[in-house]
Specification:
By secondary structure, the protein is an alpha/beta fold. It contains 13 helices and ten strands. About 55% of the residues lie in helices and about 10% in strands. Strands 3-2-1-4-8-6-9 form a seven-stranded mixed β-sheet, with helices on both faces. It has a three-stranded mixed β-sheet with strand order 5-10-7. The termini are far apart.
């Protein structure tokens, strides 16, 4: 008879958990699900595109990347696109990059390469290299990727360029890690997927706030009109996310997320590489302007509170042997998990990802806020000097 009786404490825990459950559902259905809605729009031809394919320049910065250039550059050079050039800026490489690029130039007449001066000081060398590449480019539209990336389709540039509609100055694309069986690859792949869902989904919602330099495009005019990377020239990173945060608006930014437009990243081999990437991202994300940083920060905060309230409720229910309360808590937990499974895995499929997340999803869902906090703490104690003028 006492099975359905709840104490005042039980009611409070249920209200807290239920409220956080609703907040999480709102995030998943109104933001994370936008990639799926975008693909539905593609299938029904509801997303406007242009048939014009203007000439464009692909710019890549490389430092000691001869192996990656040999393996990945042909996928860029062999794109099915009417007129384009590929510019590789060799940033002081001491490996075989120079010889390799000279050999490739003999085979591909639309490939050019240059270098950054050794005397450059007090400036991010990558930003300098990209600026030199943009200045050297012949065409108005510049597309960016990196040496450790390759296009999975010969239609990559066509898919990017179909977004060069009137008024568009920026196109944001998706990049995900090549699949391997290692645990590090699973973590980095999930992290790249969720980061992609965040910046692409909120751009589709009209609040663009960052881009990833592995797959994006913008106009040269936009770059020079905003004085390039001058606002954060001494920061090691930020050539992609901080610049897009500075210039992107709802009216000048479009998203391209068809599977043919995806760029794949060669897997990181060591945890230290991935950690440095995440720590560097933490060093630049603190400079983001606009509401997106706070929108996603609140999502993470509400997620942590959701787990804490769930653990508190289940602990109370087991302690008091209130199985009705326990069933409600488990039901809410399973409903949120189902929501995640459907939206995240469908988004992964729509973005051309091979991996799906089932048993690892709840683990990663709780793990990444904690590891992100660890990286931010690590960045704080390292100080600003490690992220300046490289």
């Amino acid at each position: 008879m006492n099975f359905f009786i709840l104490t005042q404490t039980d009611h409070i825990l249920l209200v807290i958990l239920g409220t956080l459950f609703l907040i999480q559902c709102i995030y998943y259905f109104s933001l994370y699900n936008r990639i799926n809605l975008y693909h539905k729009g593609l299938q029904k031809n509801r997303i406007p595109h242009t048939d014009s394919l203007p000439p464009l320049s692909v710019i890549i910065c490389a430092k000691n990347e001869s192996r990656n250039l040999r393996e990945n550059l042909p996928s860029i050079l062999k794109q099915d696109y009417p007129e384009f050039e590929v510019i590789v800026i060799n940033d002081g490489s001491t490996d075989e990059s120079e010889e390799l690029l000279c050999q490739l130039e003999e085979k591909y007449t639309h490939l050019y390469h240059s270098f950054t001066p050794d005397s450059a000081r007090y400036i991010s060398r990558k930003k300098l290299a990209l600026t030199l590449g943009i200045k050297a480019s012949k065409y108005e539209w510049v597309v960016f990727t990196e040496a450790n990336c390759y296009a999975i389709s010969k239609e990559w540039l066509r898919n990017i360029a179909r977004n060069f509609t009137y008024g568009t100055e920026i196109v944001l694309g998706y990049s995900g890690y090549e699949q391997q069986k290692s645990w590090l690859n699973k973590k980095s792949s999930f992290d790249a997927l969720m980061q992609g869902l965040r910046y692409l989904s909120i751009a589709l919602a009209g609040k663009p706030y960052m881009g990833i330099g592995r797959n994006m495009a913008y106009k040269k005019e936009l770059f020079f009109k905003n004085k390039g990377y001058s606002r954060h020239l001494n920061l090691q990173r930020g050539d992609d996310d901080l610049f897009i945060n500075q210039v992107a608006t709802a009216s000048n930014t479009r998203v391209e997320a068809a599977p043919e437009s995806v760029i794949k990243i060669r897997p990181v081999e060591y945890y230290k590489e991935w950690k440095e990437e995440k720590v560097s991202y933490a060093a630049t994300s603190q400079y983001y302007k606009g509401p997106a940083r706070y929108i996603w920060g609140f999502e993470t905060f509400s997620r942590i509170l959701y787990y804490l309230s769930f653990f508190a409720l289940t602990g109370m229910a087991i302690y008091t042997q209130n199985w009705f309360l326990l069933m409600i808590g488990i039901l809410l937990f399973m409903l949120r998990c189902l929501c995640q499974l459907l939206i995240i895995n469908k988004s992964a499929k729509n973005l051309g990802e091979e991996r799906r997340y089932y048993t690892t999803l709840p683990l990663f869902d709780l793990y990444f806020p904690l590891i992100t906090l660890k990286f931010k703490t690590y960045r704080f104690f390292r100080g600003k000097g490690d992220f300046m003028r490289r």
